[in-house]
Design goal:
Elements lengths: L2 H7 L2 H33 L2 H37 L3 H36 L7 H30 L4 H24 L3 H30 L10 H35 L2 H15 L2 H20 L3 H28 L1 H5 L6 H14 L6 H13 L3 H26 L4 H47 L1
Helix pairs in contact: 2-3, 2-6, 2-7, 2-10, 3-4, 3-5, 3-8, 3-9, 3-10, 4-5, 4-8, 5-6, 5-7, 6-7, 8-9, 8-14, 8-15, 9-13, 10-11, 10-14, 11-14, 11-16, 13-16, 14-15, 14-16, 15-16
Length: about 450
């Protein structure tokens, strides 16, 4: 089936399933990269090793966020060009997107290598943890750049209807990571350094497969490998993708603030607890983000084709689908929290404290579905300002101030950090719902005009 019929005519729920499953799987594997390292390091090195990985996490998240920004911005612009049947425009978008992606990654890698020690200290590293954190950071920085490039290629392939490539490339990387982790960390006792090498090598392997497939797309669009950044094309890519960047980067920014709050109240044990529950917590987002990301090229294509009836149906089905799946995941994790957290550590006291913190953290989690769906919806329509506003709302505008107030003003200690999660979930979800309602009024007007236009065309025919 061509993209025209696929995005414009296929049954919505079938289309969402077709695209969301590989995206969800890709997100799952991406989270597993860091989770696998944490499991091996936690069991072989101990809590100091976990603390080192937690401190490096914000840097990894920023790198991943930049890759996601270019990937989402490029795939959205690419889909809109395809909706307009603008082949030349599609070709330019691809070339500019790829050039942007590897340029940003090269600059970021150089920056981290030059300023790594200073960055880790700012992130809250103690002198005990700093050597381990450096061991991990200086290896994974190379692999993270390749992971970001793989994300870019995967987004383009999905926008073209190829959902298999993303699954295969991430699966190859994940399997490689587990095997090398086992050899270097468990068998050879290389600790944090071994985990970092395993991650970097696996991300290079995954990229190699993805790039092999991307070469076929380059031939199809008659593209060469040259460098090209046209401001008129690159800026829309960045402005549309900036909200996706914020969604990913704010996790890292928030982690820096919370690490420092916890370090000042209960010390390194707080950083360890946050690190463990964050690994489990990230998996809750996988279904809703995957479904929202699957919606994006569909809405973008139909926005380009001015099929507003289709957009309304896609938005409704996406919200419902995301809410149901996230509720099922939430209930499962609430019930099995002790078993999930026990995967990382064997210390019963740490497990008990982590379970309490985790259950408070995710108390009202399913309502966040509408929040993340709204971000991707506004991105797909090219409403970058609205998308950016919503994306910074939950963690940067609401959660950081709330957590600081709870800890510093009300002296709630670690509890203040945990309860800031459900408070921010409620406030941000209500705000995003109001914005979606407002947008829905405009969409309904567009739908009525489309129906009237189709009736008139039918009479003329």
């Amino acid at each position: 089936m061509s993209n025209n019929k696929l995005f414009g005519e296929e049954k919505i729920i079938k289309l969402l399933l077709r695209f969301s499953i590989p995206i969800i799987f890709s997100y799952l594997i991406t989270e597993l990269y860091n989770m696998v390292d944490t499991i091996f390091v936690g069991r072989e090195v101990g809590t100091s090793g976990i603390a080192a990985l937690v401190l490096v996490f914000p840097i990894q998240r920023i790198i991943f966020a930049l890759g996601t920004m270019v990937a989402v911005g490029t795939s959205t612009s690419f889909s809109r060009c395809n909706g307009r049947k603008d082949i030349e425009g599609s070709k330019k978008v691809l070339k500019n997107g790829f050039s942007l992606s590897y340029s940003i990654m090269i600059l970021l890698t150089i920056t981290v290598l030059l300023l790594g020690d200073r960055i880790l200290i700012i992130l809250g590293s103690s002198q005990n943890i700093l050597p381990l954190a450096k061991d991990y950071l200086y290896y994974i920085i190379f692999g993270s750049a390749f992971l970001s490039m793989t994300l870019f290629i995967s987004s383009i392939m999905i926008a073209l209807g190829n959902t298999k490539m993303s699954i295969v490339s991430t699966s190859i990387g994940a399997i490689t990571n587990i095997i090398i982790d086992f050899i270097l960390v468990t068998k050879l006792g290389m600790g944090v350094q071994g985990a970092a090498i395993a991650t970097a090598v696996s991300q290079v392997v995954g990229f190699t497969y993805a790039y092999y497939n991307y070469r076929k797309i380059m031939k199809e669009y008659n593209m060469d490998l040259g460098f090209e950044i046209d401001k008129k094309i690159a800026m829309p890519i960045i402005t549309v993708g900036i909200a996706a960047f914020v969604i990913e980067a704010e996790d890292g920014i928030l982690m820096v603030v919370l690490n420092n709050l916890l370090a000042s109240t209960i010390g390194d044990s707080g950083i360890v607890i946050l690190g463990i529950i964050s690994k489990v917590y990230m998996f809750l987002f996988i279904s809703m983000l995957g479904i929202a990301a699957a919606m994006q090229p569909i809405v973008a294509y139909n926005a380009g084709a001015k099929n507003y009836k289709r957009i309304k149906g896609v938005m409704y089905q996406t919200t419902k689908f995301a809410l149901i799946t996230s509720t099922i995941l939430w209930a499962t994790m609430m019930i099995f929290a002790p078993q999930l957290i026990g995967i990382f550590v064997t210390d019963t006291a740490i497990i008990a404290e982590s379970v309490i913190a985790f259950r408070i953290m995710i108390a009202v989690f399913p309502i966040v579905s509408i929040y993340y769906v709204s971000i991707y919806y506004f991105q797909a329509l090219g409403k970058a300002k609205t998308s950016l506003l919503v994306s910074v709302l939950r963690q940067l505008i609401i959660m950081i101030p709330v957590s600081i107030i709870m800890v510093k003003v009300f002296n709630l200690g670690a509890l203040g950090v945990w309860i800031s999660y459900p408070i921010s979930d409620i406030l941000s979800s209500v705000a995003s719902y109001m914005l979606i309602r407002s947008e829905g009024i405009e969409l309904n007007i567009a739908v009525r005009k489309q129906i009237e236009r189709e009736k008139l065309e039918g009479h003329l025919a």
